[in-house]
Amino acid sequence: MSHDAIESFWREERRYPPPPAFAAQANVRDPAVYDEAARDPEAFWAAEARGLEWMTPFTRGLEWDPPFARWFSDGRLNATVSCLDRHVAAGRGGKVAYVWEGEPGDVRVLTYRELLAEVCRCAHALRRLGVAKGDRVTLYMGQVPEAVVAMLACARLGAAHSVVFGGFSPDALRERIRDSQSRVVVTCDGGWRRGQVVPLKANVDAALAGETPVERVLVVRRVGDAAGAVLEPGRDVWWHEALQGAPEAFPPEPMASEDLLFLLYTSGTTGKPKGIVHSTAGYLVGVASTFRWVFDAKPEDVYWCTADVGWVTGHSYVVYGPLANGATSLLYEGAPDWPRRDRFWDLVARHRATILYTAPTAIRTFMRWGEALPAAHDLSSLRLLGSVGEPINPEAWVWYHRHIGGGRCPVVDTWWQTETGAIVIAPLPGLTECRPGSAARPLPGYAAEVVDEEGRPAAAGAGGFLVLTRPWPSMLRGIHGDPERYRTTYWARFPGKYFAGDGCRRDADGHYWLLGRVDDIMLVAGHNISTMEVESALVDHPEVAESAVVGRTDAVKGQAIAAFVTLKGGVEPTPERAEALRRHVAHKLGAIARPDAVYFTAELPKTRSGKIMRRLLRDIAEGRALGDTTTLADPAVVRELRERYEHA
Fold this sequence. Notes:
By secondary structure, the chain is of the alpha/beta class.
């Protein structure tokens, strides 16, 4: 669906009004908050920060030495007190914090009181393993409650956690352990994924076979004998043995506002992962506030963010944001299609989830499987839908709204990054119009612009570069061990403005439309064409399930468009069908956007979090050596694609 088609969609008055519960909140969510925050952002954020529990209240706001920021620097707090202790102290200890379901179907419920006790016991165990304030601890685990407990236990005793996604290879794990200088690793004997055992402990053993600073390994028994885990005497200890008999109270370590809460590694263009640094207070202010604003969770809500805790979405909107607000969250271990493709909707129906926050890639996969699967389940408990991870194409937005939300649930499309720490641009249901494919406008307290190549404000409707023009509390504080890389990566392109590589356009109403990474903007015969728009036009075709588009070097045009397409079940790839898709794109977007080539593939290369790795598709299209593939869910997909591409 092109942007013109979207505007036509709205002119036809096919609007989806918010449900009464959200409409009633409009008076509470005063539109004046945007202007009030813009007039004095420091006072605005200070008011938000006072909503946390402080051991020593802060008196300072922002200290800005571009590009380095400090917020609330003279305050002292511990993140776990705002996430756990205050709820228990207020008499809400019996409220459910997490309902966890494992892939085999086992279910566990943790109240806030029980979670606090487990966190304290784990903090004692880590302390006995030698972890002290200021240390780093690497977590390499499945999506199990112990992962949340371990993260919070680190924060409780003042150590920074570095969570490495459990699908990463031993080499990737070793690199992150070395960079963070972690002395302790927390892992599981194994995990479940599509009925198979993920060998987490074996991967840790392989990672530690090289030179690392690790002295101790704490191992959760999740799979049992099927994992075949072997403990190394003197180094490894079982979680249940280490926590046995540990006290259920552990005094929270007073932390300075700017003390390190966690490191989280993200991909770098140089091939070396970047250790993103997040502070304690600023990060917690950001995620606590934005969770409250965007999801407006009620006491009776069951909230499900489907992200793994190994990604920033899991840190912010599975752990810290929901817990700071006393929410009840659903946590699921396995794949969304195991043992049946309707497992996702079965979980929503059985646990009566009311808020669902998931990735556009997952939504497009569900579209590919058809409406019959969600239609077979009672999804009437849902009242709000969210998307995260990459821009959502309008077709997926509409399908999500109609077939999952029943036409009654607002859809909040959120833009943010590992580096921003928290949601920056998103609609506020009941206050901001939700338009298919648009992330709406910056949230209160944030300042964004769309600029051209020279850093000047881009004209309305014109594409450009998305920048943030002033500091915000949850912003990254740097790249671990490399302040110069932080400066050049995020602040050098447009001096004084944060730029991480996203393209965007802002319409006449001020709504932001994310276009994907700037390296996903193709310059075809002098025209800037967004890969997202071409992909959206392809997915608009009734035979297409999913697509990914990249630009490749062309001697005449500068760049030519290569499209990789997955067809819906039962549709056969043929040269005639490829030509039909090329014509379809030309009809939707104009001849300049017609793909030069269409390649059919059963699967697209994706990370284990569901993101399409267009960088690898560009490597294939340009005939380059493949970059880092350690984050791929299935590396064989890329090998098969390369062979097909080279023989086309």
